[in-house]
Amino acid sequence: MFHRQIATACALLGAGFAGSMQAATSDANAVLIHYADMAQAKYADALKTAKDLQAAVDTLLASPSADTLASARAAWKTARAPYQQTEVYRFGNAIVDDWEGKVNAWPLDEGLIDYVDTSAYGEESDENPYYSANVIANETLTLSGREINASEITKTLLADELHEVDAIEANVSTGYHAVEFLLWGQDLNGTGPGAGDRPATDFDPDNCTGGHCGRRGAYLRTATELLVDDLTWITEQWDADGAAREALLQDPKQGLAMMLTGLGSLSYGELAGERMRLGLMLHDPEEEHDCFSDNTHWSHYYNVLGMQNIVTGTYKRVDGSSLNGPSLAELLAAKDADAADALRLRLEESLAQFDVLVDSAEQEGVAYDQLLADDNDAGNAKIQAAIDALLAQTKAIEAAVTALDLDGVSIEGSDSLDNPQAVLHGT
User: Fold this and answer.
1) Residue 197 CB partners (closer than 8 Å, separation 6+)
2) 58, 218 in Cβ contact below 8 A?
3) Looking at the chain, which terminus has fewer C-beta neighbours within 10 angstroms, N or C?
4) Alpha-carbon torsion, ordered 339, 345, 351, 352, to 10 deg
5) SS3 of residue 72 by DSSP
6) Considering only CA atoms, which of 278, 132, 156, 295 is closest in space to residue 226?
7) Could you report the per-residue pLDDT of 320-355, keeping only the tens digit for each?
8) pTM for the full model?
9) How distant, in Å, are the alpha carbons of 236, 241, 247 from that of 34?
């Protein structure tokens, strides 16, 4: 029901869009200030929901049960909603892009963290010597030729020693997806129904399954604390005297270029390409963004909603209040009303296609990884329709760049879109 309420609100925004174009046009600086205000609000909401997740994890570890595990999983899903709406601040804003890997890096080689089903996962990888290091089971690790004391699972161990060790991006030891794996465990269902199904007893030292339950709990607690720390830091970067805000507001045209770079890159290379087209080409559920929890439909939806936030200047906060202000849409309409109309329309069409993916999972019981299956033509078509909507949306973003006469906008690409034969042939 929640996504329907949001979609209705967005439809109302669209209905009032023509009126907003006729209103007094906001100057670029006012638009950028509001863009920064929305960033601060979104990250603050992500921080609040991460603290709620932290409380749920503490309850789970104090009293492991099916109910407390379910509550922690629900808190994780709730925390994803505001965070995914922040991803539109990546790519253009260097401070965000340099930081983002701490909290949302994926895919991850989960064998680095904990036990895995080797019949599905395998035992080793030519690309990653730490593919099955299993820090939870091992109090001593050899990393980069050095022996590491892992007897105590600390923030330093996870963030500084393990995360992306040897510059291997799949060595993800922190962030939302590390926590997700610990809460759900592996999804061993391939493109069939079902998500990960880790038992609550994996966190119960008195009735331990999976071995090393105390260390597993310590890892989960520490990773969640790190998530709160990292979100605290990025929220502060958007405060009145924050470095990200200051960098954005140095020059209006440069700031607008940063905004449009983020919009275009998330729309095209990241979401349409790396998160969707690549998995569809390979029919590979391992390329699904929230692959342990089967929450991908929501993560993708909130990415698109986050892009619409930026264009319309409206963000609905987790407490139910709305943040409204000078918008990119108004600024664009003053330059080129047709370009503004086209961008609005393409955003609405994208949101509608992603609503189809949400309905598939929430109403029809067919999760995103099931839609990826090689023999699911109808499911593949739903994903492709969403990709196509993003591609059309990206063209409208490019037209906006032209209308605003911006330099320095560089939209990230993806081999899955720009060079698919390289993906299929592994070159």
Assistant:
1) 184, 185
2) no
3) N
4) -160
5) helix
6) 156
7) 999 999 999 999 999 999 999 999 999 999 999 999
8) 0.93
9) 16, 15, 14
